[in-house]
Design a protein that fits this description.
The complex is a heterodimer of chains A (127) and B (301).
Chain A lengths: L1 H14 L4 E2 H4 L2 H4 L11 H12 L4 E2 L2 E2 L8 H9 L2 H7 L19 H12 L6
Helix pairs in contact in A: 4-7, 6-7
Chain B lengths: L1 H29 L30 E12 L15 E9 L4 E8 L4 E11 L10 E11 L6 H4 L11 E12 L4 E12 L1 E2 L7 E12 L4 E10 L14 E9 L2 E8 L6 H7 L10 E11 L5
Antiparallel strand pairs in B: 1-2, 1-13, 2-3, 3-4, 4-5, 5-6, 6-7, 7-9, 9-10, 10-11, 11-12, 12-13
The chains are: A mainly alpha (127), B mainly beta (301).
């Protein structure tokens, strides 16, 4: 049992030497602190403005990129529920390997991604 | 640096004392020296309220512990002043090998904290007070199994690395049985978290704690404890408070019942020392109890 005690101290020494700060290890987490994604996300007041700014130019009735029309709730809801909406804006390659906005060198802001993600997780409701 | 020195001392001291034990048993077999009378029952059990005492139990004993903390008094009458409210429960098993070395394992529902520790009675007080104090070394390693609930909104898992779930506590418990009724103890405590939140937060927290027990009758004692935080480990330092508790012990046969009021929700030092969020002045105190049952296990002489 004495060996167990020495082993315990060695384990503590080896595993206990981290001095991590969450904001340094995950810098993106700091951006969300000024993002008001704490309230319930509404399709009309939170999601439509984001879609209008970044997506509508390619995904509308007269110009349906990839066959996807995001000008109506049903169009947005379809890609929300099959997981593609979150995947393409987060660039995580899970439900789709596409990276949106197409041709952009960077994602839309982490705050907007967080808002859309939260709305989708709550059921992608027409609220 | 301080931490590394502390570790080195703990390991060296522990291993040094083991060697001492072997030598002593050799001496005993050759001649019978005058037996030192060690002070017994400095405290009735291994905890005052949340703080550890110098006691580790008798040889070959298993201590089963249940600790319960209710909600806060200031949650109002509708919440039965905390009795209905959120509760923290810790279940633990602590085994003492030879009356000096104890290993413990437990799990708290608050933050789903699994704690393991090693406790060693280094110096024992003697009846003739040639050695006036008892010293026990304590080292604990804790693991929080809780999931980061913010993952669905931020996409970031706070516990992405396994190491981020670990926290540690090391303390030196120094106690003295002043007389038949009064026992006091002093504990320098060092807490380390592998992961803290903000860049300016510190991973190391230092504290000094004080505990006391006053026996009123053979079975009834009053208890008190206070943890004073020594360093400013976060900008939100003032939103947390020093842990303070008052209570009483009831001993019956093999059970010790401890009932108390404390402002700490957690039972473990890594939660109490830095992150006690209740204040005694604002009614942020809670009723709690500890039950301890000791079983004799193993070799019978």
């Amino acid at each position: 049992m004495k060996y167990f005690v020495v082993l315990f101290f060695l384990l503590v020494l080896v595993t206990g030497c981290y001095y991590d700060k969450m904001e340094e290890v995950y810098p993106a987490s700091t951006l969300n602190q000024n993002c008001d994604s704490s309230k319930i996300m509404s399709y009309n007041s939170d999601i439509i403005p984001i879609i209008n700014s970044y997506c509508k130019s390619c995904h509308n009735p007269s110009n349906t990129g990839g066959g996807i029309d995001l000008s109506t709730y049903s169009g947005v809801n379809a890609v929300a529920t099959n997981g593609k909406l979150v995947s393409v804006i987060a660039w995580d390659g899970i439900a789709s390997s596409s990276q949106m906005p197409s041709g952009s060198s960077s994602k839309i802001s982490d705050c907007n991604i967080a808002k859309i993600r939260k709305w989708v997780n709550a059921g992608a409701l027409n609220n | 640096m301080f931490k590394k020195i502390f570790f080195l001392i703990s390991v060296l001291v522990s291993s040094a004392v083991f060697a001492q034990d072997d030598l002593l048993s050799l001496v005993d077999s050759v001649e019978k020296p005058v037996k030192k009378e060690f002070t017994t029952a400095t405290f009735k059990g291994t905890r005052i309220i949340n703080l550890h005492t110098i006691e580790v139990g008798g040889p070959h004993t298993l201590d089963f512990r249940i600790s319960h903390r209710f909600g806060e008094l200031n949650s109002g009458a509708y919440n039965a002043f905390g009795l209905d409210g959120s509760a923290n429960i810790r279940l633990g098993l602590e085994y003492c090998f030879d009356g000096r070395l104890q290993l413990g394992l437990g799990r708290s529902s608050y933050e789903k904290l699994i704690d393991g520790f090693v406790k060693y009675r280094l110096i024992r007080q003697t009846e003739d007070n040639k050695i006036p104090i008892s010293v026990t070394l304590f080292s604990g390693m804790n693991y929080t199994a809780i999931k980061d609930l913010n993952v669905s909104t931020t996409g970031i898992d706070k516990y992405g690395f396994l190491s981020s779930r670990f926290s540690y506590v090391h303390q030196i418990i120094i106690a003295s049985k002043i007389n038949r009724n009064l026992s006091l103890e002093l504990l320098p405590i060092y807490v380390h978290y592998n992961m803290v939140e903000k860049i300016k937060d510190k991973n190391d927290m230092y504290g000094i704690a004080f505990g006391g027990r006053y026996k009123m009758t053979k079975r009834f004692a009053l208890t008190i404890e206070y943890i004073f935080r020594l360093n400013k480990y976060s900008d939100s330092f003032s939103t947390f408070y020093n842990s303070f508790g008052l209570g009483f012990d009831l001993e019956t046969g093999g059970h010790v019942f401890q009932v108390h009021f404390t402002n700490s929700f957690g039972v473990d030092e890594v939660q109490n020392v830095p992150y006690t969020s209740g204040s005694w002045f604002k009614g942020g105190i809670r009723l709690g109890f500890n039950i301890s049952r000791v079983f004799a296990i193993g070799v019978r002489h």
